Amino acid sequence: MMASPSVRVLSIQSHVVSGYVGNKSACFPLQVLGFEVDTINSVQFSNHTGYKCFKGQVLDDTQLGDLIDGLHANGLDCYSHLLTGYIGSRSFLHKIQTVVKHLKSVNPGLIYVCDPVMGDNGKMYVPEELLPVYREHIVPLADIITPNQFEAELLSGQKISNEEDAGKVMEWFHGRGVKTVVLSSTDLGPQGVLVAMASSVVNGRRTRLNVHIPQLPVNFTGTGDLFAALLLAWSHHTNSDLKKAVENTVDTMQAILHRTLDQARADAGVEEGGELALTRHQLELKLVQSLDDIRSPKPRIQATLIE
Questions:
Q1: Residue 170, class by beta-carbon neighbours within 10 Å (0-12 exposed, 13-18 middle, 19+ buried)?
Q2: For this structure, is 225 an active site residue?
Q3: The domain containing residue 215 runs over which residues?
């Protein structure tokens, strides 16, 4: 699957030297699917923060501005897509607002995909002061947004207890101008099943769906970053067909996660059920090994359209 030569993504999120989160998780799949990808690293760490320690640097808003200014001075700031993920400071997030507006002035057709990385499972892992910036300034600029359930609840101020609640939350995003909303994971399914929900309003046509995803017995890191990148790619390749884009995204995710878990078990010498013995290093996403699945995902999961 190849994108047109004019398709170019600027991805602004975290970077790790070892492992796969942030730009390391997003860049390779986008390139495999034919996109030119430029990256700005909001942080540069030795490894993700789930390890016993990490070292590195944090980019500030002035440095972000310098990079954008350099691109602009050389006529290198015309992008078809902008993707943002983990951002750790309020000033940097405010600068993202300026960057989005600038890039949309250069290319009014630019599609901004926002993954509002703030937390999961009821816990924020960024400063709380980022929440109003996302809600008031970033969300209205996004064309596609991919929060998990917790992040969607934070942004909308509404609790999601059932699918009706999820629909109201997605409408909240639409009301602020977001064309496509994908709740990448919710706990609305039966035990052992995650439910992703999505809604789009494109050219006056409304589509809403859900998809049931088997939950694996371990926690991976970098999956949200991978999800957002794949959704960007498949939204483009399917001409904004929400059902096909979500199905291809989830199918790819399932292939990668199953391969990662199978390889981790093999490396650790444990059988199914021995997941407690697996290390964070063993559970790093097996992206390179999943090249063929990224390029041509095999049908595994079927999304259900909701009337």
A1: buried
A2: yes
A3: 8-305
How would DSSP label each residue in the chain?
A: ----TT-EEEEEEEEESSS-SHHHHHHHHHHHTT-EEEEEEEEEESS-TTSS---EEE--HHHHHHHHHHHHHTT----SEEEE-----HHHHHHHHHHHHHHHHH-TT-EEEE----EETTEE-S-TTHHHHIIIIIGGG-SEE---HHHHHHHHT----SHHHHHHHHHHHHHTT-SEEEEEEES-SSTTEEEEEEEEEETTEEEEEEEEEEPPSS--SSHHHHHHHHHHHHHHHTTS-HHHHHHHHHHHHHHHHHHHHHHHHHHHT--TT-GGG--TTTTS---GGGHHHHHSPPP----EE--
Q: 3 lies in a domain?
A: no
Asked if the structure places residue 112 within a domain, the reply is: yes
Residue 257 belongs to a domain with what CATH number? 3.40.1190.20
152 neighbors 165 (Cβ within 8 angstroms): no
Residue 1 lies in a domain: no
In degrees, rounded to 5, the angle at the alpha carbon of residue 177 between the alpha carbons of residues 176 and 182 is 90
What digits encode the pLDDT tens for the residues 103-158?
A: 999 999 999 999 999 999 889 989 999 999 999 999 999 999 999 999 999 999 99
Convert the pLDDT of each residue in 206-224 to its tens digit: 999 999 999 999 999 999 9
Whether residue 210 lies inside any domain: the answer is: yes
Number of domains in the chain: 1
Active-site position among 77, 165, 225, 251: 225
- The rounded distance, in Å, linking the Cα atoms of 217 and 226 is 19
pLDDT of residue 162 exceeding 90, the answer is yes
Residue with tokens 């993700």: 48
Specify whether the CB–CB gap between 102 and 68 falls below 8 A: yes
